[in-house]
What does this fold into?
Amino acid sequence: MREFLIRLKSVQDVQEFVALATARPYTVFILDARNKVNGKSFMEMFCLDFRRPLRVIAHCDEEEFQAFLSDADRFLVK
It folds into this structure.
């Protein structure tokens, strides 16, 4: 299990992030302070509070994680 923080600022960002997550063969969850949702579900994403950074949990190995981080770079909280 690997984790990182993202910030999504628009519907377009949500759509693009869900597309990245959906392309992964492993489970991706997104969490805010109250909710845990499937990162591959566009509809579930809108249960989250986008005013704060979101935690991403990816159930993958290190190589897959690094590729996901690279693809999601523009959303990362640095």
Observations:
- The first helix runs from residue 11 to 22.
- Residues 29 and 38 are 5 Å apart (CA to CA).
- The domain at 2-75 is CATH 3.30.1340.10 (Histidine-containing Protein; Chain: A;).
- The chain has a mean pLDDT of 97.
